[in-house]
Design goal:
Blueprint (H helix, E strand, L loop, with lengths): L2 H7 L3 E4 L3 E4 L12 E2 L6 E2 L2 H8 L6 E3 L7 E4 L5 E4 L7 E4 L5 E4 L5 E9 L2 E9 L3 H10 L3 H9 L5
Parallel strand pairs: 2-5, 5-7
Antiparallel strand pairs: 1-2, 3-4, 6-7, 8-9, 10-11
Helix pairs in contact: 3-4
């Protein structure tokens, strides 16, 4: 099985330890942002009401999501946390769905999160670490993807 087939074989969502829910975008779609609204062309954190609407009754101590590539922790009034660890290798991008918008980390550093439960409370660390983005960006350029090369090298989307 090749890497693309392996990725396709993975579940769309996953529940871990009865306390953690993991998805890529939102509960129902890989292409919908759980926490961010991009109608203005850039990400703005949705209201709690809108986030709860996306979760549609789902309630876990921790909800892990991605898709935006922007590291973020949002605590709901219930105490539940939504954690987006960011992106290991794509610190910026633009997209036309649902409308044109740009996601930026303003740094080429890789992002990840460490989540631990200590004394019945979750501790979340969002980390940024260097990696050899100077080797990756030229690869994108050689493949005719100047936009990707810029995103990888800077964490920004060109104006």
């Amino acid at each position: 099985m090749g890497p693309i087939e392996w990725l396709r074989s993975l579940p769309k969502t996953q529940t871990l330890f009865g306390e953690v829910f993991a998805c890529h975008g939102s509960r129902h779609s890989d292409m919908v942002y759980l926490v961010e609204d991009v109608i203005r062309g850039f990400p703005v954190v949705k209201t709690e009401e809108a986030i709860l609407g996306e979760l549609n009754g789902l309630s876990f101590s921790i909800t892990l999501c991605g898709h935006t590539h922007i590291p973020r922790v949002v605590q709901l009034s219930s105490g539940s946390l939504i954690v987006n660890p960011g992106s290991v290798g794509v610190p910026a991008y633009d997209d036309n769905v649902p409308n044109y918008h740009a996601m930026r980390n303003y740094s080429p550093l890789a992002s990840y999160a460490i989540i631990e439960k200590r004394e019945q409370q979750w501790q979340v660390e969002l980390l940024k670490v260097p990696y050899d983005h100077t080797a990756v960006a030229p690869q994108a350029e050689r493949k005719g993807r100047k936009n990707w090369a810029y995103w990888l090298a800077t964490g920004r989307v060109a104006a």
